[in-house]
């Protein structure tokens, strides 16, 4: 077989890409009043792995220069929907955002609280218009939401859903359950990326640290997982911060500066 020099150079650059450092997957789920300015830079010579942020809302007043802000349409209440198009277009066109998140925990009465059918209609109305302009996320179910998200994907057939965000909360001893949950959504998604936009292990800080030592390598090494954000920069849990911040707690340092593929901290 004869290769043209152009084909050879394309093949060579693909080869270089494959060998380059993988793109970091870690992010922050951070309410706007929780300071996140110190999740950048380096520690013991290891650079921050955090490169994206969201705040459960469609705009923010604490966009970090080193992070992609991801607007979210939390639910279908008019408070959220009336500002959605202006905010999402603003962040896509002027703010460097390339992804959008949809309804938060729609299977839960106290959260976005939508049936799969109603969510599919709302997704077509509010998310589909951005097809071709940003990568689009399905609604984010928690780990009680397998049936809900299966039904949603059927109801929204033909929707241009690029990725499936999920949440997980369970005991720190159940890291295996976390892996099974992520893998089950990877299978369900039929090749779509999976993001874990909230997850937290129940337990002491030391027990959460042990959990992350296993969970981070699993997530970094799983090609189906595109992004994840540990729950710990939110109004109701600031475990990644020291006394509310802005300094990072030891757990925050472990999460931010463990090298790609390791959860052991920047040692
Ligand atoms: C809620 C958000 C809230 C966040 C942090 C989420 O589960 O849906 O409204 O800001 O938790 O507490």
Automatic annotation (TrEMBL):
Q: Which residues form the Asl1-like glycosyl hydrolase catalytic domain?
A: 40-255
UniProtKB keywords: Signal
Listed SUPFAM superfamilies: (Trans)glycosidases
Signal peptide location in the record? 1-20
Which Gene3D superfamilies does the record cross-reference, listed alphabetically? Glycosidases
Is Signal among the key words of this record?
yes
Q: Which InterPro entries does the protein's record reference?
A: ASL1, Asl1_glyco_hydro_catalytic, GH
* Gene Ontology biological process terms from the UniProt entry: fungal-type cell wall polysaccharide metabolic process
Q: Which GO terms describe its cellular component?
A: fungal-type cell wall
Q: Name one Pfam family in it.
A: Glyco_hydro_cc
- Show the PANTHER family listed in the entry: ALKALI-SENSITIVE LINKAGE PROTEIN 1, ASL1-LIKE GLYCOSYL HYDROLASE CATALYTIC DOMAIN-CONTAINING PROTEIN
The name this protein goes by in its record: Asl1-like glycosyl hydrolase catalytic domain-containing protein
> Per the UniProt entry, what species is this protein from, by scientific name?
Trichoderma gamsii
């Amino acid at each position: 077989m004869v290769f043209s020099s152009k084909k050879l150079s394309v093949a060579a650059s693909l080869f270089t890409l494959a060998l380059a450092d993988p793109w970091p997957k870690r992010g922050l789920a951070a309410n706007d009043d929780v300071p996140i300015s110190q999740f950048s830079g380096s520690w013991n010579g290891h650079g921050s792995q955090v490169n994206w942020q969201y705040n459960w809302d469609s705009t923010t007043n604490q966009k970090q220069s080193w992070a992609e802000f991801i607007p979210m349409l939390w639910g279908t209440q008019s408070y959220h929907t009336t500002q959605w198009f202006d905010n999402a277009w603003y962040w896509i066109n002027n703010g460097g955002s390339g992804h959008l998140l949809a309804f938060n925990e729609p299977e839960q009465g106290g959260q976005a609280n939508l049936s799969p059918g109603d969510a599919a209609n709302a997704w077509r109305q509010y998310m589909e218009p951005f097809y071709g302009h940003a990568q689009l996320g399905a609604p984010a179910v928690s780990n009680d939401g397998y049936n809900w998200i299966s039904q949603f994907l059927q109801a929204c057939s033909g929707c241009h859903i690029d990725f499936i965000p999920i949440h997980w909360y369970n005991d720190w001893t159940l890291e295996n359950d976390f892996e099974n949950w992520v893998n089950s959504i990877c299978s369900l998604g039929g090749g779509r990326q999976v993001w874990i936009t909230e997850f937290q292990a129940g337990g002491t800080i030391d027990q959460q640290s042990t959990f992350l030592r296993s969970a981070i390598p699993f997530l970094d090494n799983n090609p189906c997982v595109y992004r994840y954000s540990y729950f710990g920069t939110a109004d109701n849990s600031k475990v990644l911060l020291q006394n509310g911040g802005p300094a990072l707690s030891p757990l925050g340092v472990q999460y931010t500066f463990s090298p790609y593929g390791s959860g052991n901290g920047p040692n």
